[in-house]
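Per your request, structure below.
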């Protein structure tokens, strides 16, 4: 059995899934892991919903920080 980095092989309950919130519009993800965009800006991981990702595709591909959108 292999554990995740920082995880424990000890028994117990599984960790609660992280609730994702879009860093741009505040939409909350519902259900299983969404197909959102993840960005690391200034060492901070941020998630963007599908709608915000589509609206800002050029800026994302140009690697502009979300502050520029």
């Amino acid at each position: 059995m292999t554990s995740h980095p920082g995880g424990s092989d000890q028994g117990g309950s599984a960790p609660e899934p992280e609730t994702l919130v879009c860093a741009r519009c505040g939409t909350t993800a519902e259900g299983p892991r969404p197909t959102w965009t993840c960005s690391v800006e200034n060492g901070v991981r941020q998630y963007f919903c599908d709608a915000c990702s589509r609206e800002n595709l050029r800026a994302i591909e140009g690697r502009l920080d979300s502050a520029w959108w």
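The chain has two helices and two strands.

Regards,
D.
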